[in-house]
């Protein structure tokens, strides 16, 4: 499972390599899909987690693109 949603801070992610960021992105994407599925079946109490995961994915993708273009 993903480290913790609090670990998706930009300053901590900037120190990681592109490979590490891709691994994190895969984890976050998987957890997002799982949470989204649970939300549609009514099993999730904390629906704000979906928003945090979506923003986390965007943050990681942005950093990957920054590193690719640097």
What is the gist of this entry?
The protein has 70 residues and is mainly alpha-helical. It is 71% helix and 0% strand. The longest helix is centred in the middle third of the chain and has 23 residues, at 18-40.
What does the secondary structure layout of this molecule look like, with pairings?
Layout (H helix, E strand, L loop, with lengths): L9 H5 L3 H23 L7 H22 L1
Helix pairs in contact: 2-3
Q: Would you kindly provide a written description of the structure presented here, covering whatever features stand out?
A:
The protein is an all-alpha fold. 71% of the residues lie in helices and 0% in strands. The protein contains 3 helices and no strands. It has helices at 10-14, 18-40, 48-69. The protein is elongated, with a radius of gyration of 13 Å. The N and C termini lie far apart (30 Å).
Number of strands: 0
What does the largest sheet look like? none
> SSE order, as H and E?
HHH
- SS-based class: mainly alpha
Separation of the first and last Cα atoms = 30 Å
Mean pLDDT: 88
Q: What proportion of the residues form beta strands (DSSP E)? A: under 5%
Q: Could you estimate the helical fraction of the residues in percent?
A: over 70%
Radius of gyration in whole Å, from Cα? Answer: 13 Å
Q: Low-confidence runs (pLDDT<50, min 5 residues)? A: none
Given the structure, what is the number of helices?
Answer: 3
Shape: elongated
């Amino acid at each position: 499972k993903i480290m913790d949603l609090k670990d998706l801070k930009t300053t901590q992610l900037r120190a990681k390599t592109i490979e590490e960021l891709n691994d994190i992105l895969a984890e976050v994407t998987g957890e997002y899909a799982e949470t989204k599925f649970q939300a549609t079946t009514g099993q999730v109490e904390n629906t704000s987690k979906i928003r945090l995961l979506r923003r986390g994915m965007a943050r990681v993708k942005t950093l990957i693109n920054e590193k690719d273009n640097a």
